[in-house]
Structure formats: structure tokens, C-alpha cells
Amino acid sequence: MNYSTIKKTAVAATLVAALGFADTAQAQQVFGGRSQYRTWSIGVQGGITTPNAVIGGNNNFGQKVGYFQNKVGEYYGLTVRKQFSHLFGLEVEANRGKIKTYNHDQSGPAIENKYKAQSAETKVNWAASLNGVFQLGTVDFLRRENAVNFYAKVGIGAFAYNPVQFGTNDFTGTPVYDQKWGEDVLGDRSPSNPRDKDYRLGMIVPVGVGAKFKLSEVVALNLGYTMNFTDEALLYGPNRHGDSKQRFANVYGGLEFTLGSKDKQNLTFANPVATMYDELRDPSLRNEVEALKQRVSSLEGTVDALGKDSDGDGVPDKFDKCPNTPAGTVVDGSGCPIKFPEQVVTNSATTGAYYAPIQFEFDSSVLKTESYGTLDKLAKEIRDAKSSVTLNGYASSEGSEAYNVSLSKDRANAVKQYLVNAGVSASSINANGYGEANPIASNATEAGRVQNRRVEIKK
Prior knowledge:
Elements: H1 3-27, E1 37-38, E2 40-50, E3 68-71, E4 73-83, E5 88-107, E6 117-139, E7 148-166, E8 175-178, E9 200-214, E10 219-230, E11 247-258, E12 265-266, H2 272-281, H3 283-307, E13 345-346, E14 351-352, E15 358-359, H4 372-385, E16 389-393, H5 401-421, E17 429-433, H6 446-452, E18 454-458
Parallel strand pairs: 1-12, 16-17
Antiparallel strand pairs: 2-4, 2-11, 3-5, 4-5, 5-6, 6-7, 7-8, 7-9, 9-10, 10-11, 13-14, 15-18, 16-18
Helix pairs in contact: 4-5
């Protein structure tokens, strides 16, 4: 993979991470959200550099391929990071240090063999980058609390550097090349090209992996490895191998300090699965769940008691002022029987018994089961006597007049349908609906309204 491809990939990854962290954070919220965690941290780090990377590297200072030697240089810096979820954070990183390399023998660069250099030391005045940090896994090693976190990072930034070449392999003595940037590599010192800078600016793309070890609620040990891709061919000064882009790597260790209240968990080490597991194991939570179950059971018992209707009259025992009424008895809202005046209906062939009105629930045209016995008796009488019957439906005063007329008609038809199903000819039944007309009790009370929701039987 060449430098251009790596640079484009790193730029794209960093921009996508930076612009998309809000959606990532929203999608990855851990239970109560970020407010319950500590999300800011600062870190200090130090380590060594090498002029190569594990994926291979260009070191144009070498006399020939494989002829240069790696030397280590110091590299140190600091970081400031904001964690947006347990998976992703943004980090600002700043470093400085040195990169060193040397040849077995003195060799000159491609430019007129002017300099006889055996070693090169590049001073990195500063390097700064914005990195997206992607957490790959938080691990428990036989501990309830997460202790180890693995991560990868990619970023983009800038750095200022200055290469110095020496004629010896120990980086001592008078430099044979120490360019002041502003002159060209041939040493032009004309007034039009003054030597007025002691560093050169370039682009840097850090790509790395690492692991963090939780030492306490505040401090973590941070170990990592970073490959630094640059757009510079002169990272080690003049060379005989063209303008290939250079790279170097650094290995580091350091301490990271989490900011904020110690009462809050560090989001870096938060694991939603582990958090759920710990909460389910929490004895206080289990006790609370058991107590909730008991309260629900008690509430269910109370509801059952409130709905219990021992005599089956449609009025719960708690509100039934006349318990143990016989089955089929027409009762009012308090569970007491409704008294109807006795009446005898006589036709040309048969003297029949008086039939009490068929009662209905509020806003309903569905027959009650306690009415079945009365209607079965009525049906038998009509069949035996080959007589006819008139059914007059009524309603209480709730609702509009037109609605109540329709509801009373439905009630009369419900009784008619039952009689037809019981073998009575439909032509022998006349069903009418009169709405709120002819109340038999006051509509000002519920007990009265209960009586008015009826179908009267006329023979």
C-alpha cells in the first residue's frame, strides 16, 4: 500500500469518525447515557523511534537496500481524549523527539556525492494529530471490573522536522549536512533563497494499536505501537534513492489520567454486557425484584377480591348490599332485587304469567345469561299457545335521543333473535325501540337508570 492510499484512507476514516461521533454515541449509549460516566482524560507517554515500520518501510538514507542500520531515538508527548461511547473517542496527540539511522560505511547522496554521511539524526521539533480511537474489546481477567482495553487508532496531522547527517556512525562530530530550510539541497545561499528556517513542515498520518491496563479508578497504564506515514522524501536528508515517501514508527508507554468525579465509572473501560451481568448479580436488585413480585401478587389478589361475585347477580360482593340473591333475579346497582308490580295478561286462549322486563348493561344490547331461563319459558308458552308477543325496548337517558332509540331497538331485536332461535316464528314477534320514553324509574340515579335499560314483554 503506497503512501497516497494510506493518507486518503486515514483522512477519510478520521473525518467520518469526527463527523459521525454523535450518531455513534447515540447508537451506543450505555444504559443511562454518557452523563453517568467520566469521558475526559489526559495522558503522558514516552518511548523510542525506529526508521522502519512492521509492514516494511523506506529509509532512503541507506547506501543500498538492507545496508542501513536501525537506531533508536527518544520520543515523548501527551494526549487529550474525549470518549463518546464505549466504542469510540477522539484524541489530540502531540509529540517530539528524534529518529536515528546509520550506514556501515560512508556514502554520499545522489547530489554530486557532495556529502560523506554515515549516520542521520532527524529532530522532530513537534508533531500533532487528531486521532480517532476505536476500542476493540474490554476484557475481564477473573475480575468483576473490566481491567484491560485493546484499541486501534488512526489520525491525520502535521509535524516539523530537521535532519542532520554526520560523517561518523555515532552521531557525533561536525555535521556534514545540517540544512537551514530556505536554501535548496545544493546549498544555495543566495539572497533570494535565505537560510531562515531550522525546520520543515510536513503531513503525518499515525496508525497504531495498543492496550490500556486499569491501575485504579483514575490511572491506567497505556502501551502502544504507532506507524507514522509522512509525505516527506527528505525525512533523513539528501539521499540517493529518489523521492519515496518516508515513514517511521514509535513504541511507547505512559500513564492516562481520567478526569471527573470518582463516583462515576470510566467510560473507556465500560462494557454494556458486563454492566448488565453485574446488575443482574446485584443482591439489592434481586431483592427489589422479589419485593416487586410480591407487590404484584398482592395487587392481583386485591383485584380478584374486588371482582368476586358469589351470587352471580352481576354486582361484586364488595358492593352487593343484598348477597345470595337467587339465580336469575333482576337486581339494581346495589345488588338488591327490583320490585315490579304483579300483572296478569290474558288472551283468548291462555292466561299467561307476567314476565319481568329483560335487563341490559349500560350501552349494551347483549343479553345477560340470567335472562335465558325467563326467555326459554316465554318461548315455550308462545309455541304451545301459538300466540304472539310484542317486545318494547328502552334505554336510560345517557347519550343522544337518536342513539338511545337505536340502542333500544337493538335490545328488542336481541330478545327477538333469542326467541326465534328457541323455535318461535319470527312473524309472531313484534320488536320496537322507544329510546328514553316511558321510564319506570328516575334517570337521576344509577339505580333508576339500571331499571330503565330494559325490554318489556307484552302478550
